[in-house]
Amino acid sequence: MKKITVGAVLLSMMFVGVKAQSLKSPDGKFEMNFQLKNGVPYYNLTYNGGVVVEDSKLGLRLFKDTAIKFASEIAKPEDAKFDLNNGFAKVDEKRDSKNETWQPVLGEKKNYINNYNELAVTLNQASTDRSIVVKFRLFNDGLGFRYEFPQQKNLNYFVIREEDSEIDFPTDMKAWWLVADYDSQEYQYQETKVSEIPAKWDQAFDANASQSLVKNAVQSPLMLKREGKEPLYINVAEAAVLDYPASHLEVDAQNFRFKTHLTADRQGAKGYIQTPSTTPWRTIIVAPKAEQVMDSKMIFNLNEPTKYTDTSYIHPTKYMGVWWEMIIGKSQWAYSTAENVHIDKTDFSKLTPNGKHAANNTKVKEYIDFAAENGFQGLLIEGWNIGWEDWFGHSKDFVFDFITPYPDFDIKMLNDYAHAKGIKLIMHHETSGSAANYERWSDKAFQLMNKYGYDAVKTGYVGDIIPRGEHHYSQWTINHYYRIAEKANEYKIMVNSHESVRPTGESRTYPNYISAEAARGTEYEAFGGNKPDHQTVLPFTRWMGGSMDYTPGIFQTKLDYYFPGDKRFVKTTLAKQLALYVTMYMPLQMAADLPENYKKHMDAFQFIKDVAADWDDTKILSAEPGDYVITARKAKGTENWFVGGITDENKREYTVDFSFLDKGKKYEATIYEDGKDADYIDNPQSYNIYKKEITSKSKINFKMVRSGGFAVSIKPVK
User: Side by side, which strands form the sheet with 21-24?
Assistant: First the structure.
């Protein structure tokens, strides 16, 4: 435990204040101080006069040169002279400020406010005559900082051994965290004190298709809470991860300190830099209420505006998919019984069908019919293309060509059939981790999409990355994701990536990259399961930097319906599944269950049909990470509102105050709530639906059962 007191920290800050460069937020509540101690850069942060972050080191360690050898991550004492973390003198400082309003192409609100004060400190390292800039932006909701490397005689090319940005907290706090992994975020969230993370770390993960764990480190975004009479909520993340690896956080549990740990390549190198260049922003969002953290758009504000000249093709989409039946094991992606196929040699028409291939003409037409009858815009079809027989686990480079359909999938006929009914098919490009192969085929794949009128693609990266030795979050692969986004923009195509890196606000810059998975989604309900509190943590972590394709809407939650005796089940009530469409922002919004299950509950399915996918306004009515989330949203371009509430494994009551509605207007509210006898284990499909006239003065009390919820559709009375 730390021996130092908060009072001592404040005294220390006052003592060094004369030499420090100070920066205040526009509202004056935050103050950041930067200083050099014996040539080493430090910063700290206070909120309303109280310490949030103690003096924390900044800097980077570099390799000797750009000729990296295997196992060269092992540092030698003589290598220290190449580092950019000491021996600095301040040679310049510049200040700036901005207060602007900008409109996201797709977003949770019509307008995002970007208001900050900025301090850029130029540091020179006399021993090497190298200069860097440390830039800070202080918003009314927290701090962002990054390193900038101007082009100069002695710093043109370099390789990062590690970035050592620290965030040193004064007290032990509650934390919601995931184990760090270079290749996956698909783990269960843990809730412990920071001091307890190492003891829990070894039990905090299960197996994954691609896995490179970082011992005693956690992933970002990391959610923290200082408990007590004056609680404080803190979110630690990053923004604008471009041409740089994604970061993790090494944990010093005794001192409550976190340090940046970048994703490495197989040589141990973290980043290959050519100046001029910048790192991503390290972000610290701070608020006295959890709702304010969820409402922050600081991460998006730290990204650059888009350079796209045309964004008219980018639109919210509600879709269904030939997907869930493969996830649960009812059908298969593969067409045949073969175990060894070659994309350029095998004649798939001569293979023996396995009888379980889901992406066949008859079944796809049935999905199209149901989606069209119920007002959906898109239908995702997985397993349509050749190669699924041996797609996984073989480190196979040429695994798919992304253009050749199986014999029982008539791509022209199905597209014509879909378009005649107002449905656009959504392309599926699983790469099996072979990102290099996808880049080779991307032009032909997108040309095929243009030919048949597809305007959205779901990409997938299951398995180890090829080029071999790269990781899902290393610099090369990060660049790959955005090369694909830029290529897709050339063909006016929207991208939804799975098993990719978590977004860090880049949808501002690449608005056609409209969604991603990059976390443990609904599919895991059929694998290892998701805990009932899972969906109450995600909005504070994964969702902070961008939308997720969580794929909710499962009505038949017990899998023994398909396979008698099967113990797997989705750990929510049906009403909670409806609420997820509001508590989770998803501009690409899936109704994931099978049509046959929706047909049995068309009254509840009406909410999925009605709910919007993009918004003019969002209000976080009440929230507590790991416990509950209550959200209200106003549909884009309408006067319709939707409210969703979810809880964890505990029963809860919540009274919705509808004062966010326009005064003097009457509205019809359609309410979908847990039945009195509902329970996520014993009776998940029990729900109650009723209508009620409400105004801005109305209040309605909702009783949520274990892992339950409620959803409300609100329309003005004309």
Answer: 21-24, 30-37, 40-47, 50-57, 166-168, 257-262, 247-252, 213-219, 179-181
Reply yes or no on whether the pLDDT at 67 is more than 90: no
| Pairing verdict, β 88-102 and 112-125 | antiparallel
What per-residue confidence (pLDDT) applies to 3?
45
Output the DSSP codes for 523-577.
GGGGTT---TTHHHHGGGTGGGGS-B---------BGGGTSTT---B-SS-HHHH
> Using CB atoms within 10 A of its CB, is residue 538 exposed (0-12), middle (13-18) or buried (19+)?
buried
Residue closest to 587 by CA, chosen among 37, 232, 241, 107: 107
Q: Which residues contact 269 (CB under 8 A, 6 or more apart)?
A: 63, 68, 72, 73, 159, 160, 161
Stretch 144-169: mean pLDDT? 96
Distance between CA atoms of residues 571 and 559, nearest Å: 11
Q: What percent of the chain has pLDDT over 70?
A: 96
Q: Rounded to whole angstroms, what are the CA distances from 113 to 142, 159, 297, 613? A: 14, 36, 8, 21
Going 537 to 540 to 541 to 543, the CA torsion angle's sign is positive
Alpha carbon distance 585, 635 (integer Å):
12
Integer-rounded Cα Rg, in Å, for the chain is 26
The 10 Å CB-count burial string (b at 16+, else e) for 289-322 is ebbbbbbbbbbbbbbeebebeeeeebbbbbbbbb
Q: Can you give the pLDDT at residue 6?
A: 45
Round to whole Å and give the CA distance between 175 and 57: 22
Cα 706 from Cα 652, distance rounded (Å): 8
The type of residue at 209 is A
**430 three-state secondary structure:** strand
What is the C-alpha separation between 680 and 575, in angstroms, rounded?
10
Instruction: Please list, in sequence order, all residues whose beta carbon lies within 8 angstroms of the beta carbon of residue 682, skipping any fewer than 6 positions away.
Output: none
Q: Is the pLDDT of residue 309 over 50?
A: yes
Which entry of 108, 191, 382, 523 is annotated as an active-site residue? Answer: 523
Question: Bridge partners of 428?
Answer: 458
| 15-33 as b/e: b if 16+ CB within 10 A | ebeeebbebebeeebbbbb
Q: Per-residue b/e over 480-491, b at no fewer than 16 CB within 10 Å?
A: bbbebbebbbeb
How far apart (Å, rounded) are the C-alpha atoms in residues 685 and 681? 10
Q: Give per-residue pLDDT as tens, 226-248.
A: 999 999 999 999 999 999 999 99
Neighbouring CB atoms inside 10 A of 601's CB total: 15
Q: Alpha-carbon distance 672 to 34, whole Å?
A: 52
Q: Give the pLDDT score at 348.
A: 98
SS3 394: coil
pLDDT in tens, 401-459: 999 999 999 999 999 999 999 999 999 999 999 999 999 999 999 999 999 999 999 99
Token pair 């006295």 in the structure block, residue: 288
Q: Is 525 tagged catalytic?
A: no
Q: For the whole model, what pTM was predicted?
A: 0.95
